[in-house]
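User: Can you predict the 3D structure for this chain?
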Amino acid sequence: MIRVRFCHPRLTFLVLLVFMRRLVIQALSLILSALPTLDCANAISVDEFDSPQALEAKPPQGVQYSLATTSGLGGTRAIEAFADPSGSAFAHLLTIIDFGFLSHSQDNDILGYQTLSWDGDTQAAVLSRSGLGTFDLLQDSSSAFRFEIISFDYPNGKSINLVVSVFDSLDTSKASQATLVLNQSINTPPGNPAIFDLPFSFLTPAPGASGLANLHQIGAITLRIDGMDSPAADLQIDWFGTNGICRNPPNAQGKVIDECGVCAGDNSSCADCSGVPNGNATLDRCNICNGDGMSCLGCNEENIAPLLAAMDGGAKKIEKRINSMVKVLLKYQPSAKNKTFATKTNAAAHKLQVRNWILSWTIPADSVVCSNTAFCSSASNDPYLQEYRQHNDELLALAKSVQAKLKKLGVKAIKSAAGYYSQAGKIHKENLDMTYKVPTGKFSCSAP
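Assistant: Here is the predicted structure, written as structure tokens:
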């Protein structure tokens, strides 16, 4: 394992600069939240650069390696750094990952590169071309790699190359490569990085490969920051991923989107009653999955007042969480715009809660349930239940809208309201589950 010592003045200074920049970002986030921002919320996250890592290379050491765990693709991140031996022995090529971004820095009299690898392997110096299994880059309609870049100094008019390579997991002789050339100075406001896309259509066979990698079965991804023609280059990258519809790291199965089309979903939102996503199994009139409707012929009287009371209370609980989230929003940013938003949101939540209270008690508390509709007729409760479910969804949508505003205010605000939002989601599900426990109608049965 390589131990990195921060004994070089330039490295120490860069670490301090990184730390100070993060403090500035946090301090200015409230002021700059009103600025227009680019919509970067849609993408597979390869690396958010949250787990710290540092590496230093200098002549005549040549290649250096470092390995770190990460929440990004594959669970590990390896870095290879190369300093051209022809450079000054006192020059350094530095790599620092911390505070959510990557910093690449070269002294004025040194050429070199660094290569980051995501292959799920614990050997930094060896690329495992099938380490990710068969990761599908196209699973969420991605069409390009995406970079969020904070700054690039474009020293002496010298560009720097970002070279992305992908490796076919099932045919390791195949690999693809594309290059993003940064040939302009970049200096973005805190929290609003510049967006650069590298289309998959730009991929060509990598040197030595027998053909293009199949993007549906990728076993490893590398990013080479090539400064072999860019002495004195300084570059900061905030995020690296793709431009698809899901901005989240893959799960243990390499999925960012489930079979229902839900990002980070668990296949439950479109599952049939037997748990099969997009399946065709249905509940019969006796609430039996794929049943024949003949399993329950009798009629039973039941008092469902406690269930209706719980449905009534569930709506009030979500409204209360929304009110609490709105208070947090106004605490951190009591602008006139937010006050107007808060008033409208609270009013909408109360209106939906009152309607669901009325709907809960429109359904008879004394319910006669008959399984055999051949001998029983009923007045349906479905219109009330469907409307209750709709309002239940609308209440959660209001909570999400407040959550979206809180995310723009920074970590403190989102942490302050995190409990309320998660509780609202749990209560929403409980309310929905209760509606399916309510009898679909009040039955009147005739003699056979």
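The CA atoms of residues 136 and 216 lie 4 Å apart. Confidence is low (pLDDT under 50) at residues 1-19, 21-42.
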